[in-house]
Amino acid sequence: MAFTKLENTRDLGGMLTSDGRSIKSGLLFRSGHLSGLDPADADALRALVRTVVDFRTDGEMAEQPDTVIPGITYLHIPIVDSLTAGISREETSDRTVIQMLVEKPQDAREYMCGLYRGFVSDFCVQQYARFIKLLADAEGGFLWHCTAGKDRAGIASVIVEGILGVPGDVIRADYLATNEHLKENIRGLTAYVKEKAGADSETADEALWYLFGAKEEYLEAFYGAVSERYGGFDGFLRDALGVTEETAAALKGKYLE
Fold first, then answer.
1. How far apart are the C-alpha atoms of 251 and 257, rounded to whole Å?
2. What is the pLDDT, as a whole number, of residue 86?
3. Which CATH fold topology does 10-255 show?
4. pLDDT tens digits for range 154-163
5. At 88, is the pLDDT very low, low, confident or very high (cuts 50, 70, 90)?
6. Distances in Å between the alpha carbon of 251 and those of 17, 81, 160, 164, 202?
7. How far apart are CA 93 and CA 177, in angstroms?
8. Which of 153, 11, 35, 144 is nearest to 88 (CA)?
9. Cα torsion for 202, 208, 209, 211, to the nearest 10°?
10. Of 214, 7, 30, 252, nearest to 131 (Cα)?
11. Beta partners for residue 49, in sequence order
12. pTM: predicted TM-score of the whole model, two decimal places
């Protein structure tokens, strides 16, 4: 699978599980937004994907609508229900980032950790549960995305990989791989925000890296909130997302080889 301009679109295929199996290739894809696709990427997705789930807000979708490809079903499951600086990427949200955090690295870090803890809020959990139900019922290639493919799509990937039995260190590595895939994107976005804010310093670079990069402490914040509220990841899957042993077995039968 090769894309021309989709920097953070990845097939989960080939990831090994704790029981010695692996995720089938060509079925589970994580991505950033799909707006403004060039013809080569559109053709590649047409050949691979049957269902796209968009985790973005209405505002994000209006600013950068997905390129509609005939034959693909598009579904909208917003994970956050409002402008969320550092997560959603509407212009209003980006201005909020600039005003609040551009010169405050540790505040930016704590802010992002708080957002990841928020992924176990009632609204987010309800939306991720809808996503897993769709995944269980899907036929053919299934792609989920937010704007950058880092936070909302990243946690969706953590959940899917966890259900399928991927070891924790492999899940973390997949999450952190976004930094490499989006390296140039983050540099460009950082330069743009610094110019708009009139901030050109190492402090601003550090703060914006916390906002736009993937950090292991963000995952730890998510897992910590999961443990606090549900007693652990298994309890989170069962009690929050409704993933029974039968559901997990069916998903493994469908997506593992």
1. 11
2. 46
3. Protein-Tyrosine Phosphatase; Chain A (3.90.190)
4. 999 999 999 9
5. very low
6. 13, 28, 9, 7, 46
7. 25
8. 153
9. 160
10. 30
11. 141
12. 0.93
